[in-house]
Design brief:
With 302 residues, the protein is of the alpha+beta class. The C terminus is likely disordered. A hairpin with a 3-residue loop joins strand 1 and strand 2. The chain starts with a strand and ends in a 29-residue tail after the last strand.
């Protein structure tokens, strides 16, 4: 099964694979606005008086996952009973903020209760900034100055800091809501949050998605200490590990295995990773600026 969580919708594709290849046996998409109107989004997001601020409720994404699994079980029960692997992708740059209750709550979900009901109360930030948000110009400048300028930032992270990137968004959250930041135990990207829901464990950040945060040191594929210190206190303890895009997160969470009728063989159904940039582009891990040909550097120059 392939899941794609974009800005406006969730799509599921069931693939039948054998030694000769694979084929699509079922595909379903619904938009958040139509399927989950209680979250009051427009095109999947919430805007206020400031047009530069664009947010989405992470609880909606959990609710959407639960709804999609119900649809798949109803429409394709045989295929769902034979589910062998789940691969997920999500809009890049958006960030999800979890509190101390999240790990235990997500690890002990009850298949008889809605996922959204059980996920409520695990967020230290009720609305997540998404890739359309451009409200962090000041934070971009502050982080860039602290690490030694645009060229140094690009040399380590692959580009200068951009407003939509998670690093500046995290800094803004720390500056404007310090108490809520202090209550934050884990900061996920949307893709790693989706993987966390699916596996019921703390999932790593995909290296490709991590390259769009202004936090990842590309030569080492590890969090860059100087950028972390420039962004917010204690950030190294709030970020997940980093893993390759092809990494297997773990077996499907037993509660979802029961919900999707793979009960009794949850350990045989694995959760993997993909990533999606701006809903439509397949991204690649950014290379350091010095490795880029000159004609590719136009959007990375300080």
């Amino acid at each position: 099964m392939v899941l794609t969580l974009s800005t406006q919708s969730l799509t599921a594709i069931l693939l039948e694979a054998d030694a000769h290849g694979s084929r699509v046996v079922y595909e379903h998409t619904f938009t958040f606005d139509a399927a989950l109107p209680q979250y009051q989004t427009t095109h999947g997001v919430i805007r206020g008086s400031d047009p530069s601020v664009v947010l989405s409720p992470p609880l909606m994404w959990a609710d959407a996952l639960d709804r999609m699994l119900g649809i798949l079980v109803r429409e394709r029960p045989d295929e769902m009973s034979r589910l062998a692997a789940v691969s997920g992708s999500a809009q890049q740059h958006g960030s999800v903020y979890l509190n101390k209750n999240a790990a235990s709550r997500l690890a002990s979900l009850d298949a008889a209760r809605p996922l959204a009901e059980q996920s409520d109360g695990v967020f230290s930030r009720a609305l997540s900034p998404v890739w359309m948000d451009s409200s962090t110009t000041a934070e971009c400048r502050e982080i860039t100055a602290a690490v030694g300028g645009d060229a140094m930032m690009a040399r380590h992270t692959g580009s200068r800091a951009f407003e939509r990137f998670a690093g500046p968004q995290i800094r803004k959250f720390f500056k404007h809501e310090p108490d809520a930041y202090a209550r934050t135990v884990r900061i996920h990207l949307i893709s790693s949050f989706l993987a966390t829901l699916l596996a019921g464990v703390d999932a790593p950040v995909d290296a490709g998605d991590g390259s769009g945060m202004s936090l990842l040191d590309l030569p080492t594929h590890a969090w860059w200490p100087l950028a972390l210190a420039a962004t917010a206190p204690d950030l190294s303890h709030k970020l997940p590990a980093v893993a390759a895009s092809s990494a297997v997160v773990g077996p499907l969470a037993r509660v979802l295995a029961r919900a999707s009728r793979t009960a009794g063989r949850a350990g045989d159904c694995v959760v993997g990773r993909q990533h999606l940039q701006h809903d439509r582009h397949r991204p690649r891990v950014r290379r350091p600026l010095d490795d880029l040909p000159r004609h590719e550097r136009h959007d990375l120059r300080p």
